[in-house]
Amino acid sequence: MHAWPASDVPALPGKGRDLRIHDTATGGPVTVAPGPVARIYVCGITPYDATHLGHAATYNAFDLVQRVWLDTKRQIQYVQNVTDIDDPLLERAARDGEDWTGLAERETALFREDMTALRMLPPQHYIGAVEAIPGIVPLVERLCDSGAAYVLDGDVYFSVEADPHFGEVSGLDAEAMRLLSAERGGDPERPGKKNPLDPMLWMAAREGEPSWDGGSLGRGRPGWHIECVAIALDHLGMGFDVQGGGSDLAFPHHEMGASHAQALTGEHPFAKAYVHAGMVGLDGAKMSKSKGNLVFVSTLRRDGVDPAAIRLSLLAHHYRSDWEWTDQVLETAVARLERWRAAVSRPDGPAAASLVEEVREALSDDLDAPAALAAVDRWAALQEATGGTDEGAPGVVSRTVDALLGVAL
Q1: Phi, psi of 145, rounded to the nearest 5 degrees
Q2: Would you say residue 233 has pLDDT above 90?
Q3: H-type helices in 200-254, by residue range?
Q4: What is the pTM of this model?
């Protein structure tokens, strides 16, 4: 599976700062100081509907992580999956009388278009669950052989008790985990499981549903968590720098994935930092496909909204905060974009060297994009009020906003 084209990232004078970011597992900030190559895995879409603003906010957060790392002159290994086989995809295809593969391909293509328009940096490895199955099956077999997995009516389950570190990612107690498991794709009430929280690794073939050769596991399809583990281990290995996604992935997805990997390798941790973006709401509730309260990036683009304004709408909120999408959010972003473009269109302006450092400092401090926007706002206001004599200043500001915030002026 191929990703989307990368936009150029201008090189800035000097060197950026190492990133301090909130780690869900420790509950506080950690300094992420990778080696020459920074490694990040961000969980991708289940392609049964178009990219909504909740998706865009999450991918914007981890795009900022990459931009901070690039500014420190590091290379990046970024991996993202596509869950192109799962119950929600099959259910949507059945509802609409559509072939599930066609639905997945169409929505993945639209996601690529949205990411390109928003100037999100693409992953080096963009892997679908279906293409990962040959690598998933041996991992499940290994877990079975080691006693970390068991078979129940043909389905294969992971035993959470096989990982002594289970629970360290989310920090939740057993009752909270059980409730979230039921809400987020688990089956804690299924009779015969060793532990209600045990997640499925391999689902035996169901009549009328697609299935693949699972070797000793029989025909079936992979569970959600083992998919990401197989892809991450293959392309990044253990102990990579950042595991990212929305806050609703901390449990069960990232918790279970960490335990799968740790049971497989005997190493800990799966990732050095677990970073989670907040949820975007609409009309008082989190945007979700199940609720149908969605604002789609593609719809905004078709309505003529500049993708740079969409991106500024996202950047105006701290990545960890939950926030509400309103018409005013977009209007504010459109006005900001107009002011910034007017400011950099002049032949000279106020000195901008300190602005580069202000934006760097803000983003290195837990991706404080609102503080970075405020710094650019101050420069633009000064430009409007008094102008300046530095002929290079508008170009410096434009390159800084492009390189660190992903907004083309």
Answers
A1: -65, -35
A2: yes
A3: 224-235
A4: 0.96
